[in-house]
Amino acid sequence: MIPLEAHARANALPKRGEAGFSLMEAIVATVISVIAILGLAHSFGVGRGFIERYAVGRAALSAAQGRMEALSVLPPSSDSLRTNGFFVQPFNYRGVQAGTVEWRIEPYDDPAVSGPYNLDKVTVVARWGPPGAQDSLRLNRLFQP
User: pTM for the full model?
Assistant: First the structure.
């Protein structure tokens, strides 16, 4: 009979080939981990870009709404509403010009009301982003002269 201590010592020692990970297993695990971490880092960068694009879009919407509100408080006889023109003004985001706000005022004929051109149609367009990949939004409103 084998003494109890010798038996425990014999079972505690690993057998040949069971000592741990091989070098190849460690390299494969490291490569898989690096690929997963790089994919995660890339997705954070893409997400940050979407957040920034959304923030600039909100600034553009705010600028367009501000322009529309500024035009809505003018009296109907105002020369600014009587000109049939096209106007452009830059807007800023974080202290840097991010895009432009354009507006056009043109006569509009409402078929439900008699008389030609009895309304003014105001169109405000905000544009931002790099050329070729610009984003834009458009607001339309009818004013009674």
Answer: 0.67
Nearest to 124 by CA among 101, 108, 142, 145: 101
For residue 110, the 8-state DSSP code is -
* Interatomic CA distance for residues 71 and 142, integer angstroms: 11
Residue 62 main-chain phi, psi, to 5 deg:
-65, -40
Q: What is the pLDDT of residues 51-60, one digit of tens each?
A: 998 999 999 9
Number of domains in the chain: 1
Residue 38 lies in a domain: yes
Question: Strand 119-128's sheet: what is its strand order?
Answer: 86-93, 96-108, 119-128, 135-143
Predicted local confidence at residue 55, as pLDDT: 93
Range of the domain at 47: 21-143
Distance of alpha carbon 70 from alpha carbon 83, whole angstroms: 16
